[in-house]
């Protein structure tokens, strides 16, 4: 592809991921031409940070880019693909979704692929891309090379990954991030109901995450469910009013006990 | 109580918590006289690190200590209490359990309380106690003062907490640590089945924990369940063979969606 500053990129999306990705691209020296978002305000906010133009109309998308990165919600992605892929027959088109197979581009573009950064993003704090695993897939050698070049300019953990493997990684990410965060929420609600501070739990939360850097999660498991300490578990259940939460407590306790004994 | 080096402590237990606690006590300058464990080997291993004597017999426990710290499993605790509390009528007795009320000592000792360090412990890596919240409860002013003095010598986050509040904190800790770790396990199993590395998820796991330092867990929540993205959720469910794991996926997804909309 040549030099980084010669690679022109149009970024579709202005959400959490698009914001972090756009900032990382710009900092790495890529030429981000334009930001698209369904809402003009969101497009402008991100475009201003990147020195790019903003648009909320697909018909105003630049046809001049070498790469179109589609960091959109899965349902929005499907609806914009046909129009976007018509812009430039030589460009590379890539989406950033964990569970969308690469072949959504089939028949719509010649050069395409996937650029999936495995991280949870928030707009408030743009993530440093350097340590984010970037899972790359390309429909042909050219697409793969372009996407690898971009990924390697942002991150030192770049992996070629098939759609089938990426889907599994995305499921693991739902367990390791979204479901973990639900547990944080339930801890927070439990404390709040009694006027206690969530911040009390932060050292425990941090150590629980740190522990699985040096032990397998199975080795790291502690708590009443491992040893099926019925007395503690029943005392804890009696503190839970919500029926769903009780079902969750029982189900997770059973699963912890089973996993500990396999 | 006087100077730290004059406070003589007997430590009952040689497990994960007892090991970290013993090392922290010794480093803070306390005089750890003796370590008790049901197995002589475990008692000796920890005692050697602390320059203390070791015993596996309750009848050989020293009666010379000012403080007896019982860092035992909940069921072991109940069975040793009567004998231990008879040793020295002037001493302070404290257990370290989240869900055991202080009044288990009632009628057995005059001076007693609870010393609950809110953390997950492993023997491999003794925890630095400085940032561990220590929840203290005392049956009388003397007991409270002694336990506060010890806690403050180890940690800069010491809080007087009732048995009722501690029980709630312990439940929150099960959500925020034990159940979180189960999610890590399920992520690990998901990846392993396809020959993928758990280490791929560590940046995501770390950021998920880091995020709730600056956002509430509710604000931090991302993923397909927040927006009830049925297409992604069904694609993910189709990857799960285990019936319990599917139930968990459904239940947690529903709960995430509900919490996001309250």
From TrEMBL, chains A, B:
InterPro entries: 6-PGluconate_DH-like_C_sf, DUF2520, NAD(P)-bd_dom_sf, P5C_Rdtase_cat_N, TM1727-like_C_sf. Residues 132-255 form the DUF2520 domain. It comes from the Bacteria. SUPFAM superfamilies: 6-phosphogluconate dehydrogenase C-terminal domain-like, NAD(P)-binding Rossmann-fold domains. Pfam families: DUF2520, F420_oxidored. Residues 8-84 form the Pyrroline-5-carboxylate reductase catalytic N-terminal domain. This is NADP oxidoreductase coenzyme F420-dependent.
């Amino acid at each position: 592809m040549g030099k980084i500053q010669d690679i022109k990129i149009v970024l579709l999306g202005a959400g959490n991921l698009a914001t972090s990705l756009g900032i990382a691209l710009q900092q790495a020296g890529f030429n981000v031409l334009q930001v698209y978002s369904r809402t003009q305000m969101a497009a402008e906010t991100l475009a201003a940070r990147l020195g790019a133009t903003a648009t909320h109309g697909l018909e105003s998308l630049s046809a001049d880019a070498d790469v179109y990165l589609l960091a959109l919600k899965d349902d929005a992605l499907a609806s914009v693909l046909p129009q976007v892929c018509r812009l430039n027959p030589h460009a590379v088109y890539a989406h950033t979704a964990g569970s969308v197979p690469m072949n959504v581009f089939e028949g719509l573009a010649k050069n395409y692929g996937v650029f999936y950064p495995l991280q949870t993003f928030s707009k408030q704090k743009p993530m440093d891309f350097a340590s984010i695993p970037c899972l790359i897939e390309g429909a042909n050698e050219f697409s793969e090379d372009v996407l690898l070049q971009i990924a390697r300019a942002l991150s030192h953990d770049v992996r070629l990954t098939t759609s089938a493997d990426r889907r599994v990684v995305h499921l693991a990410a739902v367990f390791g991030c979204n479901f973990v965060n639900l547990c944080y929420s339930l801890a927070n609600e439990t404390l709040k109901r009694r006027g206690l501070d969530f911040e009390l739990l932060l050292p425990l939360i941090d150590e629980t995450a740190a522990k699985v850097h040096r032990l397998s999660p199975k080795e790291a498991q502690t708590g009443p469910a491992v040893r099926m300490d019925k007395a503690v578990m029943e005392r804890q259940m009696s503190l839970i009013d919500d029926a769903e939460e009780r079902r969750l407590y029982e189900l997770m306790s059973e699963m912890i006990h089973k996993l500990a004994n396999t």
